[in-house]
Amino acid sequence: MQVMFVDDESRVLSGIERALMMQDTGWFYRFATSGQDALAMLEEHPADVVVSDMRMPFMDGAELLAQVRERWPRAIRIILSGYSDAEATLRMLDVAHRFVAKPCDSKTLLATVENALALRNMFLDPKVAEIVGRINYLPPAPKLFLEISRHINNPGADTRKIIDLLSSDPALTARIMQLANSAWFSRGNQVSDIGKAITNLGLEQVKLLVLASHVFTEAKTDPYVEQLQQKAMLASGLATRIAGKQGPEQTASLLANTGLLIPELRTPEYVKETTACNTPLSAAISAYLLTLWGLPAEITDAVAHHQHPARLENETFGITGVVHVAVMLANDCSPDLSYLEQTGMLNKLPQWQAMLTELQETTND
């Protein structure tokens, strides 16, 4: 695996090199002291992971990673930065998969890179990395986006209402969870619940993230996004009822079909395609994207297997079972009855179907 580290401070690169020499990583690694040098080296030989400092003269880390995304979309992009101003944060969100807080010790940085490299083998399919690598953003549902913007711009708006609206949209939830699980805000603890994520970030940071979104213009031309959001919200609500609590089940159900926000995955070419390990391509891309963005494994595992939970070795119902039932029922599909029987939950199906009907009636009122 090829890993490139970019920092204009030679002493930082020397520290990383010393740490690498003390570990048997098996990586091929290179160092560059500027964005321009990094691009020239990547032209000669692309990298699997590019780690860049944010604050560099002439070309900062966000600009470098934007070019990496454009020219080598399969590369995993990690940015190293101290907590920055709002504008810089949004620029980094647009181009980086992971954020490492600066200053940090080399051990933490190398663990982040190692984790990122492990993702490359998740689905044994280069298409997954290629499609995910090209993503700049995910479109929120246009009507909901308008309502959220209206509430955020109202100084007297109910905070609880804003949180409820934000946590009902897959695109915005995914971005909020990415930022909340970054090194700046997670404080070493991963966040699985969207409500807690918003609380940790603070409403002002979330408002900035929403108001700075530049995707509404494109989203409003795509009615599919609206429909997907409605189904995702229904699945999320049903998962909460099945689990009897708010938590990772709710979040994973909302995000299970995140990949379908990418227009090309809805074309006939990709609708029924699977990866080399027989995972539906849309589920693989959803899980890979969310994993790259740093969401907890309990969520990404459930997203990856939500269509075929029986493929998991664990025979208990658990989070994946809840997500499977909630997403399938919300999308008018039948859950895997053999799986439900195997896990001893088949007799619960009529109860869950009644919950769905009740939720639908409440939504329509």
TrEMBL record:
InterPro entries: CheY-like_superfamily, HDOD, RNase_Y/CdgJ, Sig_transdc_resp-reg_put, Sig_transdc_resp-reg_receiver
TM region positions: none
Gene Ontology biological process: phosphorelay signal transduction system
Positions of the HDOD domain: 138-309
Pfam families associated with the record: HDOD (PF08668), Response_reg (PF00072)
Residue intervals of the Response regulatory domain: 2-117
Keywords from the named record: Phosphoprotein
Residues the record lists as 4-aspartylphosphate modifications: D53
Keyword Phosphoprotein: yes
Name by which UniProt lists this protein: Response regulator
